[in-house]
């Protein structure tokens, strides 16, 4: 299976409008399950449609394998029908006037596959997606989850090397969504396709993807495995976008030296050559711990807090802690035997801290220094 | 102090945390840092940092635009509509300020020179009173009278039909709309059949035959025109106001009631203010319709020389005053445009009131209690007066030898199927007259062909609008096809006359042929056709077609297997609804048709002119029957409400 390469891809609507996608460099390797993740309007769907050829470029180039399929400078544009991909739309876009069977065999008929072979292939795909009992029904007679399966089957029938999915699970209820996620993972293995998947749901991205490309305002923020994205967010946007409940961010730009921010600045000065350049500090809710002041592990970042809220979320708990000025949220996975109004100390290990400079980029200097002075386990 | 999660990480952590040490700090790249490592750093030199040149960009855009026929089709249709819609109107407006053929001596200038003569004649000269100002005042008074009357009758009916437990509510909801399905001059003819007096010749009216002579003011002119138009347009109020009322969320009422408002306070302070835009919009639309109405003032106004703008325009055309006709048509067009701009504003305002509760909408019916029977009687009376009485009168008039004499030997089927009748021209019953069948045939194929063409073109406009990568083309197509909507039919027909009356370049003179009727009707129907096409394509969206594209289908394949089959239903509606409105249309044809190209409506007008009352009434009944049956069939076929065909 070929790789998909986007080079400096740009898309703008109208001459004065901001770029929907700007200077996007992305390589999607063979067999990868790539998630394009970002808030709505970040350009992820546009990117997907550019790969499919449904959206043309304003500048840049797209290649599939060695073949240039889209290039403004070379004046090349291969239309979607010649790109040999599969695309599942958010709306499924099943053809309402065709039965499930004919929806599924449409692509095979186009390719003039002999009847026997076509029927065998349709049979195989429909069985794989468990929709063979609906073969003579029309799309409007199926539920959302079943329609979703048909939309997938329709694309898988032609055995595309590349399968593009545009928020395909967003119209399903929670349970179906979980089932379909497992289904997608199975399809990825079974059909051995490269999958590019667009979603705004970080859970979906984390659970499915082998690689995630986080996008915002038309540009790529970070490309990495789910764990990299979560553990080492490249900038403040990624840190804040990924994670639920969201990461705690302490703004350290302000002048005041008191409270939590002051404590943080003082603490970070130890790992960093100077407090200048540090814009903010991020701590994930599960990296926070509560303890008495004499139980705080040495070298960790800590401060006094009061428990101001306990929110059970079923199986885990979110605690709201009021520091000096800034509220912090922490998650616990065991019932907190603690009362509202309890005064305690929070603490977090230095390697669990995410330090961002004034431009919001991750401070690699901080990470390096922490790594050096932490004893190897 | 003991915390359960104290000091240690909980054991059952959901996500294995990757320790930086063991991972060896994988390639995490803060993007703006100088060490950012680009996936194809080696290849980057191949791409120049400067934007692509204009040539490159144009070549690319051209390649994309011409790859599929969409843009080409769009350009061709845009040119076609420019020629069929814009050029006639422009030609007519130029006529208004140029010396027309035959007027050289009167104006004292050679043919084709610029002149203000016609403008002066229509607006300033002494004759302008007769040509423009009096007809304008008459038009305004008739239109406002009709609006007031239809509001007084329609608003209560709308409420009764949509929000109360009146008897036969569902039945009335359809029955009260019937007057709108019939041609307006059905009522005008019924009125003359009843109230005609000695002012005009031919057979006497029923009232006259019974021994009373109706005064002129009751028989002709302002009063009957107003009443007839009001009867015809009351369904408008019932439909538009009724829809708004039905969508009105009862929770808004309930909130007021809970706060202590009485029922009349709720009606006056809550419902009415929120309904105001819908009501005003209905009224403005009625005004626009009255402005172009020709048949009713022609039948009822002519005997007493009561002129409205459309009849004055018609008189100028028939007396070959093409310059003045152009000015009058331009004036009607201008008033029409202003009216619809006002309507557009009101619709915009109406959007501000979001009274449509999506899920919470509850439509609770008001119990009328003792008023229930009274309300039902009221609705029944209105139905009798606006449907029963006119149709019955018309029908009886066609089977009675002497009007108004209800004796058994007076009844005859001669006017329908008789032979060797004692009349000058029409010597057989109407069903045996070849003229009727030729008119019927003309109607069928002219209106049919125009409707099919405009329906297909409408879908094409919708397709291009949704799909073309070249946005200005889509905008132009939408706007140009909307243009005829602003121009009342009779003014549009004048424009056609102006362009196609003489040979221009390769296009021969079309006046007197069926082609001009067909082209004019087709162009006149484009606003509805293209609106239907655009909304059908919008509703379908790009997705199903793009899915086929990704699956590997080329343009023609997608058209044949996906787009057209899916849009079959809306194509049928898009053809059927214009067909129905075309069959009962008069004002467009009356200017353009000649006896050999008569359609049913103009044929019946000609019969009215010659005082063949029974025959004229019979033809109108046939038209009404076709229109009614067609509307019902369209409804059945598409399972839609008639309200959607309102525009036609």
UniProtKB/TrEMBL annotation, chain A:
Keywords: ATP-binding, Nucleotide-binding, Transport. It is found in: Cell inner membrane. InterPro entries: AAA+_ATPase, ABC_transporter-like_ATP-bd, ABC_transporter-like_CS, ABC_transpr_MalK/UgpC-like, Mo/tungstate-bd_C_term_dom, NA-bd_OB-fold, P-loop_NTPase, Transp-assoc_OB_typ2. Gene3D superfamilies: 2.40.50.100, Nucleic acid-binding proteins, P-loop containing nucleotide triphosphate hydrolases. Residues 4-242 form the ABC transporter domain. GO terms for cellular component: ATP-binding cassette (ABC) transporter complex, substrate-binding subunit-containing. SUPFAM superfamilies: MOP-like, P-loop containing nucleoside triphosphate hydrolases. GO terms for molecular function: ABC-type transporter activity; ATP binding; ATP hydrolysis activity. It is a peripheral membrane protein. PANTHER family: MALTODEXTRIN IMPORT ATP-BINDING PROTEIN MSMX, OSMOPROTECTIVE COMPOUNDS UPTAKE ATP-BINDING PROTEIN GGTA. Belongs to the ABC transporter superfamily. This is Carbohydrate ABC transporter ATP-binding protein (CUT1 family). It comes from Microvirga subterranea.
UniProtKB/TrEMBL annotation, chain B:
Belongs to the binding-protein-dependent transport system permease family. It is found in: Cell inner membrane; Cell membrane. GO terms for cellular component: plasma membrane. The chain crosses the membrane at residues 72-93, 139-159, 171-191, 223-245, 266-288, 323-342, 373-396, 444-464, 476-497, 509-529, 571-594, 614-634. It is a multi-pass membrane protein. InterPro entries: MetI-like (IPR000515), MetI-like_sf (IPR035906). GO terms for biological process: transmembrane transport. This is Iron(III) transport system permease protein. Residues 1-32 are annotated as: Disordered. Residues 136-343, 440-634 form the ABC transmembrane type-1 domain. Keywords: Cell inner membrane, Cell membrane, Membrane, Transmembrane, Transmembrane helix, Transport. It comes from Microvirga subterranea.
């Amino acid at each position: 299976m070929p790789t998909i390469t986007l080079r400096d891809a740009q898309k703008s609507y109208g001459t004065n409008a901001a770029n929907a996608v700007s200077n996007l460099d992305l390589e999607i390797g063979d067999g990868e399950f790539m998630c394009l993740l970002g808030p709505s309007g970040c350009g992820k769907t546009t990117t997907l449609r550019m790969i499919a050829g449904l959206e043309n470029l304003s500048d840049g180039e797209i290649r599939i394998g060695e073949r240039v399929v889209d290039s403004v400078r070379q004046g090349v544009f291969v239309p979607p029908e010649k790109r040999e991909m599969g695309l599942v739309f958010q709306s499924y876009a099943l053809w309402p006037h065709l039965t499930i069977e004919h929806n599924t065999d449409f692509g095979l008929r186009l390719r003039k596959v002999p009847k026997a072979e076509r029927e065998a292939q349709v049979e195989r795909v429909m069985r794989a997606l468990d929709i063979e009992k609906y073969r003579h029904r029309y799309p409007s007679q199926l539920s959302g989850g079943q329609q979703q399966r048909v939309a997938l089957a329709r694309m898988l029938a032609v055995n595309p090397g590349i399968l593009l999915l545009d928020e395909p699970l967003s119209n399903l209820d929670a349970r179906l969504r979980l089932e379909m996620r497992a289904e997608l993972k199975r399809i990825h293995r079974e059909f051995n396709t490269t999958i590019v998947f667009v979603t705004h749901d970080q859970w979906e991205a984390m659970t499915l993807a082998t690689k995630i490309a986080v996008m915002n305002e038309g540009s790529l923020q970070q490309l990495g495995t789910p764990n990299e994205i979560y553990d080492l967010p490249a900038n403040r946007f990624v840190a804040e976008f990924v994670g639920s409940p969201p990461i705690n961010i302490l703004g350290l730009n302000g002048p005041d030296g008191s409270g939590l921010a002051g404590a943080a600045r003082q603490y970070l000065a130890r790992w960093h050559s100077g407090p200048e350049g540090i814009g903010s500090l991020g701590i994930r809710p599960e990296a926070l711990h509560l303890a008495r002041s004499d139980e705080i592990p040495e070298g960790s970042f800590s401060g006094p807090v009061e428990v101001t809220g306990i929110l059970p979320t079923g199986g885990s708990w979110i605690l709201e802690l009021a520091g000096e000025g800034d509220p912090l949220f922490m998650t616990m996975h065991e019932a907190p035997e603690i009362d509202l109004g309890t005064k305690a100390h929070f603490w977090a290990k230095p390697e669990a801290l995410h330090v961002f400079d004034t431009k919001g980029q991750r401070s690699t200097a901080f990470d390096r220094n922490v790594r050096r002075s932490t004893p190897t386990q | 102090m003991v915390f359960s999660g104290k000091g240690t990480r909980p054991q059952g952590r959901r996500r294995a945390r990757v320790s930086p040490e063991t991972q060896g700090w994988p390639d995490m790249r803060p993007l703006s840092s100088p060490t950012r490592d680009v996936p194809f750093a080696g290849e980057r030199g191949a791409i120049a940092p400067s934007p692509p040149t204009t040539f490159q960009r144009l070549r690319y855009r051209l390649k994309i635009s011409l790859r599929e026929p969409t843009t080409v089709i769009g350009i061709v249709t845009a040119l076609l509509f420019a020629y069929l819609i814009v050029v006639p109107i422009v030609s007519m407006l130029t006529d208004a300020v140029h010396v027309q053929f035959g007027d050289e001596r009167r104006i004292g200038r050679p043919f084709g020179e610029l002149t203000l003569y016609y403008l002066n004649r229509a607006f300033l000269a002494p004759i302008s009173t007769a040509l423009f100002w009096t007809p304008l005042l008459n038009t305004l008074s008739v239109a406002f009278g009709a609006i007031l009357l239809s509001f007084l009758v329609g608003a209560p009916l709308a409420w009764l039909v949509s929000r109360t437990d009146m008897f036969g509510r569902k039945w009335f909801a359809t029955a009260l709309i019937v007057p709108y399905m019939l041609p307006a001059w059905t009522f005008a003819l019924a009125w003359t059949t009843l109230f005609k007096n000695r002012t005009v010749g031919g057979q006497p009216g029923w009232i006259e035959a019974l021994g009373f002579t109706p005064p002129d003011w009751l028989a002709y002119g302002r009063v009957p025109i107003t009443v007839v138009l009001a009867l015809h347009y009351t369904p408008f109020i019932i439909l538009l106001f009724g829809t708004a009322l039905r969508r009105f969320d009862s929770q808004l009422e309930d909130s007021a009631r809970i706060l202590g408002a009485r029922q009349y306070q709720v009606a006056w302070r809550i419902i009415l203010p929120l309904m105001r835009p819908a009501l005003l919009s209905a009224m403005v639309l009625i005004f626009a319709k009255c402005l172009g109405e020709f048949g009713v003032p022609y039948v009822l106004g002519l005997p007493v020389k009561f002129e409205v703008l459309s009849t004055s325009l018609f008189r100028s055309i028939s007396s070959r005053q093409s310059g003045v006709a152009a000015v009058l048509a331009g004036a009607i067009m201008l008033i029409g445009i202003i009216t619809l701009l006002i309507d557009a504003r009101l619709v915009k305002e109406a959007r501000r009131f979001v009274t449509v509760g999506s899920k919470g909408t509850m439509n609770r019916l008001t119990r009328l209690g003792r008023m229930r029977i009274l309300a039902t009687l009221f609705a029944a009376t209105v139905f009798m007066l606006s449907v029963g009485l006119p149709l019955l009168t018309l029908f009886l008039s066609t089977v009675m030898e002497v009007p108004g004499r209800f004796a058994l030997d007076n009844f005859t089927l001669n006017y329908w199927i008789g032979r060797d009748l004692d009349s000058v021209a029409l010597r057989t019953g109407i069903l045996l007259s070849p003229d009727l069948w030729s008119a019927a045939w003309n109607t069928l194929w002219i209106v049919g062909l125009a409707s099919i063409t405009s329906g297909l073109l409408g879908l094409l406009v919708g397709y291009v609008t949704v799909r073309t990568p070249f946005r200005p083309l889509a905008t132009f197509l939408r706007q140009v096809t909307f243009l005829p909507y602003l121009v009342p039919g009779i003014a549009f027909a004048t424009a056609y006359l102006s362009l196609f009356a003489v040979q221009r370049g390769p296009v021969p003179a079309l006046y007197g042929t069926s082609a001009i009727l067909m082209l004019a009707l087709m162009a006149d129907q484009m606003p509805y056709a293209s609106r239907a096409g655009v909304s059908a394509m919008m509703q379908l969206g790009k997705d199903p077609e793009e899915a086929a594209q990704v699956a590997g289908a080329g343009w023609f394949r997608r058209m044949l297997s996906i787009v057209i089959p899916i849009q079959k239903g809306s194509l049928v509606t898009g053809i059927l609804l214009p067909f129905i409105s075309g069959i009962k249309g008069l004002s467009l044809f009356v200017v353009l048709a000649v006896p050999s190209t008569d359609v049913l409506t103009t044929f019946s007008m000609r019969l009215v002119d010659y005082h063949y009352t029974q025959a004229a009434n019979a033809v109108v009944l046939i038209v009404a029957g076709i229109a009614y049956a067609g509307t019902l069939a369209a409804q059945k076929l598409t399972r839609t409400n008639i309200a959607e065909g309102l525009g036609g």
